[in-house]
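**Entry details**
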Amino acid sequence: MKKIVIMLIWAVPFLAFGQKEIKPSIANAEKALRANKLDEAKAIIDVTTTNQEFMVDKKGNPSKNAAKAWYMKGLVYAAFDTTKVTSFKSLVADGFPIAKESFEKAKSLDKGATASFVNDPMGFPMMNQQVDAYLAQSYFNVAISSYQDEKNYKKAFEYTERTLYFIPNDTSILMNAGIFFGPAAEEWDKSLGYINSYIEKGGTSPDAYIMKFSIYRDNLKDMDGALKVAQDMVKKYPNNPEFPKYELDMYVKMNKLPEAKEVMLKQATANPNDKESRYFLGVISSELKQPEEAKKWFEEAIKLDSKYFEPQLGLAELFYLEAKVEKDKMNQLGNSKDDLNKKIAIDKVYQEKLRIALPYWEKCEKLSPDDGKVLDVLYMIYNDLEMTAQVTRIEKRMKTLGLLD
């Protein structure tokens, strides 16, 4: 898991006030909130927002202080939602729905004309945008703690979504929602939505595409969707050597080998030093029953890197399969005099082909001395070629590795 991107927002002195007399008063609710007396702040702001004389003017319209009152109620209930004080939690189990409703009422009444509803401790107006940033940080702190400390991924994702209510265009939070918190909570569709928003708003991390690909392929089992993401990855990051492999993976899983081959051919042509595209072309050609072309691509990969094990193994397997064809022919024959004569003739061809394959497998052993498959095939080849000393050597090695009783 990569390190979570954490917002860097200036800590704004906020939330904490004090007043005991319960009567309609935005100022007193603000004081109680600033003093972190949330129970008092709640009592005051609840009285304030339910007081008709305070909230409605003589003409029956919202009073001039109504928007500010609703905004303050939003702040108070948001404080309940993010507080660590257990006793306050018992007063308001979930403050966000009320906070959100209150903020929406404030916005609907004010229509964006007021840039500030509250002041900082020095008496200077705090811009609503500044307060939103502070609230977002408070909610995101809860999300991080839930994710890292509590391992409560559902709660972490819920608080990340609440963070986005205040800063919906913040790409760092969108990225965390889509790449980390959403998938951890198994919220696949929502995760995709946040990843798409992250990309649309200018997010550039390739991890967004990787997670999107993984969700489609591994969680939603949507192969067409995964393929589309893989194709987008290649277009978006044409110089990333890893992303064509995602597209290749989907073509192979969807049994679209000709398309897979085309993708790898493009990559190999574009980069004459790309050993991996040549190795994959060997694999695909082998799957397409084109052994000579597969050999060519494996050999090209080895020319670029003589210690590249995978194409060396692919090449060895192709030559061994050619020998095995002859052995299968012998196994299908009976014990008549004519069949025995045929077996002798075929065995001669078989032995010749084993000797051709043997150096490739011995090279594989040099590159990966403990590889079980390599040792197993060498053991069979040495046995069939009656190379007793080598059979003994391989037996000893396999016993040491626990591969042979």
In short: Confidence is low (pLDDT under 50) at residues 6-19. The first helix runs from residue 26 to 34. The longest strand covers residues 116-119. The CA atoms of residues 15 and 34 lie 4 Å apart.
